[in-house]
Design a protein that fits this description.
single chain, 1209 residues, alpha+beta, Spore Coat Polysaccharide Biosynthesis Protein SpsA, Chain A, 7 domains, seven-stranded mixed beta sheet, seven-stranded antiparallel beta sheet, 64 strands, 24% helix
Length: 1209
């Protein structure tokens, strides 16, 4: 709540008033909502995550996105709920009692309302303004949101104004993908029906409603849980809407829940949908039905495997009633998956629908083949061409139409001999052009105003297939490469130049199928800055990319240009001089600056002398309006310049190449004002926090060396931050005055596992500026100097991979790290060839003496395989025996006597086919087939709390033949290692394993009984740099099946409040945090010498040796750590959900756990502060736990495994 109210207090005028002026005419009405038992008061009826899916076609079920308006949090106890509500009410009362200057605050002196819809009713009645914005107390607004939305509403008088959204959590803020697409284009006074996706928007705080329009809305009598549906319906009642590109709402990332699979809730929900649908016209009903059918209703069907038979039948009844009124044409226009689902609903084929749901949530859907039948193309989803009449589905259900869309990317744009060359790759999805005749491309320049079309020459060529880098030695090529040549002279009309914008359209004809596509989608780097070209006196062609990422070829005269600029430190003003070349610039009277993307406007008078013009800009005006929200994730510092006439015609002045940009220190030691040239050659100003500017870059050996300038009088650090996950790496920085030199060796990064290469991916460079007087560090973007950009990219080629320094956007430095796979090994086709051709051929070659070890599919050098390796090497007969270790993406550094084997590289397939011994703690690929003279040892990697294998009733995200593949895989094992007599029957049953189970204990636990244990512990403390005398707490949670970025890359679902832990424990504790190998986020570092991210430490058993208290959840490491006898705490904030919905347990965890089960961060802190008492209370259960699960742990497990598998010396 405090964060929400603080954001309201920060609302500022976006116009020409003082930057500190509050937004004019702004009042706040605070309405308390009564929290139901078990409900999080921070939740609202619209708190569900919005659908981050493409509603234009079938998204193939690749991601499960909740589009419902449910989502009440229920993960806190009643005491927590009441405490949170009381705290929020106290904060609201304090805010109302002492409102910020200029802000009117009303807190009605009435009892809390029962729900959020009632709160909106009461708040609207108490408000006095002409417009309404409803904000949930857990969310917040950007500082410019109200003035930005209100300014648009005042200009257009639209019924509704919608802005963009970021989502935030304790790990930071990210753009909402759904809203990025919805709000990608600035629209004013639009018919809401013309704004694709608007009716799907479930967010509330990003909308400004005209009060009169709001009051005119029909009350459809919906239950509070369904009020969000009513708000979405209300959008279609608007006469006009504005859609703005800038972020206005900071929406808290919440744990959301779809409609419960319970009869009453489902009946209520679908009845509400039907009531709202019936209130719409036929045309509007289609706009209403489509997102529901492709969103919430689809997701409901995909969840039916969790429902009982009664609920499944009810859902079929309710959906068929709804579908009775859905346009058959609309159903036919859905994607294949949706057509198939609803066909099965109409035919009441429940079991078949469940099979399709399993298919849709697995990787199978990505592998479905496309086939041609007659003149049509079809995709092989379940029951296609079924021979059993009971399973048959009409073929048209599977026909591809909109799914056969054009894929195009632009990889090069450059000028040559006065012509613009545009190159890239293009093709129709699913229809590769394997032969030249299969695909033809025609290109046109299309004038965006007159629609005039000019045929352009286009050349097609053989290129690597679409998803691969375009390299000669790529695994597969097709005729998807193209180059379009734009000769500006052909854009003339009757031999005369006419200013205007042109798009370049491709017509792609493949096997008789024609599709059109505007050239766009530039890859990051040089294509994003096409460069401009002079074609006549003061006439230029200035290509640019618009908000849709389409290429615009603009023919425009230079009507005004800047000739000089300087900064007067005494007056704090930037002085701009220029000349007016032609109308309408000659009539300009003001310089208008617009903060991108349109969230603030400032105007300054022009002084005109003949054809000369000058203006003075107060630096403080711009600096005071710089925006840095969410720790700088939302940053607005760049201002576009326009010369404006009295009748509001505007001209963007050019900054010629002969006039250099410059950065001026202004407004304070950490601020600056920069005169910059845009990629199209126009003037822009950047005002805000000082940024490092890289002026020189070079590879010196394996090190990247950057030299540049930083104007601020502050300590500067540089970091390389990974894209798509929370990970960063520091650069070495040296300063001399304003100059800096930074060095980084991306191929040799120091880690707790030794020196490793950065993982494949992109890394943006950021500056971290440390202020004095205890101020927190500020992260700012690093920029490339304009002169340097023309010399990029710069590549370092090592024997392992390629490292490329390039940029994205208008010059943000990015280091791209390539994969360790060779070009011929990359891509689905290459891997299929290695798997189906190379591997099979290698199986016919003689077996090679050697052991291939694997820990977590190449992600670690650890666990029982490492212990078995060490035991083998200690025996004379095996001391020199060839051994190798599987390594994924170079992220493991095994000892020198182990040959690294690249995961998915050519030698990986050879090693699996020919190695005499395979020792692994991970799953083997489904295509692996053990030879009679091979020996496979499966050590597994955990003891059994969570259900595994065939014992998991509801396997999420797996293919329909998952259990068939599992049965095949377990038949390839010769030996399966068991940690205890208790675990043996479970392993036998869970894997249906008929081979020999080695009931030896886990070799990884031998370290606890080693005579070298204390020496290893001391070495580990030194390696981690742990301070002496502090108690060591290790927090090591498992991964959550349902929290991931993409398959196999899971999020750090961190619920511990690290800041509060530091405040309570920082004096005499340190906290080690180890994320699961599946989790890709880094751990947030809080405090000084308190939080240590030990995720990359190679062997967790060594961490156990230095750990005084283990905090975990459901991780199997509890069975290992029990050998230490030291206390364990279990942070089980989601126990019911994890146990009942995700995995299930083998025993009563609450009764058996060797420590307390805690649900709140404060409970964990309290237990750590009183750990001796907690340990004593659980001494009995701890002892019983060890007796049951650890009886074989004695330091000789590896010896027993080696004796049985490899023989005694």
């Amino acid at each position: 709540m405090q964060n929400c109210l603080d954001s309201l207090a920060r609302q500022r005028d976006g116009g020409g008033g003082a930057a500190t002026d509050p937004a004019p005419g702004f009042e706040v009405v605070l309405v308390p909502v009564r929290a139901a038992t078990g409900e999080d008061p921070r939740s609202s009826d619209s708190s569900a995550e919005d659908a981050d899916v493409d509603l234009s076609g079938d998204d193939d079920g690749a991601e499960e996105s909740d589009t419902s308006d449910q989502g009440e949090d229920a993960d806190q106890g009643d005491e927590t709920v009441q405490d949170t509500r009381a705290d929020a009410l106290a904060v609201a009362r304090a805010f109302a009692a002492a409102p910020p200057p200029g802000l009117s605050v009303v807190l009605p002196d009435t009892a809390p309302v029962p729900d959020h819809p009632s709160a909106r009713v009461r708040g609207a009645a108490a408000a006095t303004g002409t417009h309404l914005l409803f904000l949930d107390g857990g969310d917040a607004l950007t500082g410019y949101a109200v003035s930005y939305l209100a300014a648009s509403a005042a200009d257009t008088r639209s019924d509704l104004v919608v802005g963009n959204v970021h989502r935030f959590s304790e790990l930071g803020a990210t753009p909402s993908r759904f809203h990025r697409k919805l709000c990608g284009k600035h629209r004013v006074a639009e018919d809401p029906r013309a704004v694709h996706g608007l009716v799907s928007d479930t967010a509330l705080g990003n909308k400004l409603w005209l009060r009169a329009f709001w009051n005119s809305l029909t009350d459809h009598g919906l239950a509070p849980e369904d009020a969000g549906l009513g708000l979405r319906r209300a959008v279609l009642a608007a006469a006009a809407v504005d859609v703005l590109p800038a972020t206005v709402l900071l929406k808290r990332q919440r744990e959301t829940a779809p409609v419960p699979l319970e009869p009453q809730a489902l009946t209520r929900r679908l009845h509400a949908m039907g009531v709202l649908a019936a209130s719409l016209s036929t045309a509007d009903r289609q706009l209403w039905d489509r997102p529901l059918l492709q969103g919430e209703l689809r997701q409901l069907l995909l969840r039916l495997d969790d429902a009982d038979e009664e609920v499944r039948e009810l859902v079929f009844d309710l959906l068929n009633t709804y579908l009775d009124h859905v346009s058959p044409r609309l159903l036919r226009g859905l994607g294949v998956l949706d057509r198939l689902l609803y066909h099965l609903v109409r035919k009441r084929r429940v079991d078949d629908l469940l099979e399709v749901a399993t298919f849709a949530k697995s990787v199978e859907i990505k592998k479905a083949n496309v086939v041609r039948r007659g003149l049509g193309y079809y995709i092989r989803y379940p029951f296609f061409d079924a021979t059993d009449p009971a399973k048959a589905v009409p073929r048209d259900v599977y026909r591809l139409d909109d799914e056969l869309r054009v894929r195009q990317k632009t990889e090069d744009v450059h000028w040559k001999d006065g012509r613009l060359h545009i190159s890239g790759r293009v093709g129709i999805q699913h229809l590769r052009a394997r032969k030249r005749w299969q695909q033809h491309v025609v290109a046109f320049a299309v004038n965006t105003s007159t629609r005039r079309r000019v045929r352009l020459p286009v050349h097609t060529r053989l290129a690597a297939e679409y998803r691969l880098p375009d390299l000669v030695d790529a695994a597969r090529h097709d005729y998807g490469g193209f180059t379009v040549i734009v000769d500006p002279r052909r854009l003339r009309t009757g031999g005369r130049w006419e200013p205007g914008d042109w798009k370049v359209e491709l017509v792609v004809v493949n096997r008789g199928l024609a599709r059109r596509r505007i050239i766009g989608n530039p890859v990051a780097g040089p294509p994003e800055r096409p460069g401009y070209h002079q074609i006549d006196d003061d006439l230029w062609v200035r290509p640019r990319w618009n908000r849709d990422r389409h290429l615009i070829v603009a023919v425009e005269p230079s009507r005004a240009r800047i000739t000089d600029h300087r900064y007067d430190a005494g007056t704090g003003q930037l002085e701009l001089d220029g000349e007016l070349v032609s109308p309408p610039a000659a009539r300009a009277t003001e310089l208008r600056l617009v903060r991108r993307p349109g969230t603030a406007v400032l105007s300054y008078p022009l002084t005109v002398h003949g054809g000369r013009v000058s203006a003075r800009v107060r630096a403080a005006d711009l600096l005071d309006r710089s925006v840095a929200e969410c720790g700088g994730v939302i940053r607005q510092e760049v201002w576009d310049a326009h010369l404006v006439t009295p009748d509001q015609e505007s001209v963007a002045p050019v900054l010629p190449d002969t006039v250099h940009g410059r950065t001026y220190a202004a407004g304070g030691s950490h601020q600056e004002l920069a005169v910059q040239r845009t990629p199209t050659g126009h003037l822009a100003l950047r005002a805000g926090h000082a940024r490092p500017v890289v002026e020189e870059a070079a590879w010196e050996g394996r090190r990247l060396v950057l030299r540049g300038d930083f104007t601020a009088d502050a300590e500067l650090r540089l970091v390389a931050r990974a894209h798509g996950r929370d990970e960063e790496h520091p650069l070495e920085v040296k300063r001399s005055g304003s100059r800096f030199t930074a060095e980084f060796a991306p191929a040799d990064v120091p880690t707790l596992s030794g020196e490793l290469s950065l993982a494949a991916g992109g890394y943006q460079l950021w500056g971290r500026v440390l202020g004095g007087d205890g101020q927190e560090a500020t992260d700012v973007g690093v920029e490339f100097a304009e002169d340097l950009i023309s010399h990029l990219p710069l590549a370092l080629q090592t024997s392992e991979r390629t490292y490329t320094l390039s940029y994205k956007g208008h010059g943000l430095p990015v280091l791209r790290v390539g994969t360790d796979l060779h070009p011929s090994e990359r891509g689905a086709f290459a891997q299929r060839e290695l798997r189906e051709t190379f591997y099979r051929a290698q199986r016919h070659e003689p077996v090679v003496e050697g052991v291939l070890f694997d820990s977590y599919t190449g992600r670690q050098y650890s666990d029982s395989p490492q212990s078995i390796y060490a035991e083998l090497r200690g025996r004379e007969r095996w001391a020199d025996y060839p051994m190798s270790w599987l390594v994924a993406d170079g992220q493991v550094r095994p000892p020198a006597d182990l040959e690294p084997v690249r995961h998915r590289g050519r030698e990986y397939y050879e090693a699996l086919a020919r190695s005499r011994y395979l020792v692994s703690n991970s799953r083997q690929p489904a295509w692996f087939h053990r030879r009679p003279d091979q020996v496979v040892v499966q050590t597994w990697h955990g003891s059994m709390l969570k259900r595994i294998g065939f014992d998991v009733e509801n396997i999420r995200g797996k293919s329909r033949d998952y259990f068939d593949k599992l049965a095949w895989e377990t038949r390839q094992w010769d030996y399966l290692v068991s940690p205890s007599p208790w675990a043996t029957p479970i392993l036998r049953s869970a894997f249906r394993f008929e081979g020999e189970i080695l009931e030896t204990g886990y070799p990884r636990n031998d370290i606890f009984f080693s005579p070298d244990a204390e020496a290893v512990a001391e070495r580990t403390r030194r390696r981690l740099g742990l301070p002496e005398g502090k108690k060591v707490v290790l927090y090591a949670p498992t991964w959550r099946d349902d929290k991931y970025y993409t398959r196999g890359k899971h999020k750090l679902d961190l619920h511990l409040d690290l800041r509060r832990m530091y405040e309570a424990l920082g004096d005499d504790h340190v906290l080690l945090v180890r994320r699961h190998p599946r989790v890709v986020d880094s751990v947030p570092i809080v405090g000084e010498d308190f939080v240590y991210d030990v995720s990359l430490y190679p062997e967790i058993m060594e961490l156990f040796l230095v750990t005084d208290v283990l905090v975990t959840d459901y991780s199997s490491m509890m069975f290992d750590f029990a050998n230490t006898g030291r206390p364990m705490l279990f942070f089980t904030y989601d126990l019911e959900s994890y146990r009942d919905n995700l995995r299930g347990f083998y025993f009563d965890f609450e009764e058996t756990a060797p420590g307390p089960l805690l649900t709140r961060s404060d409970d964990v802190i309290g237990a750590l502060l009183d750990i001796d008492r907690v340990a004593e209370e659980h001494r009995g259960t701890y002892r019983s736990f060890v007796d049951q699960f650890c009886p074989l742990d004695d330091g000789h497990a590896a010896e027993r495994v080696v004796d049985r598998v490899f023989g005694k010396d």
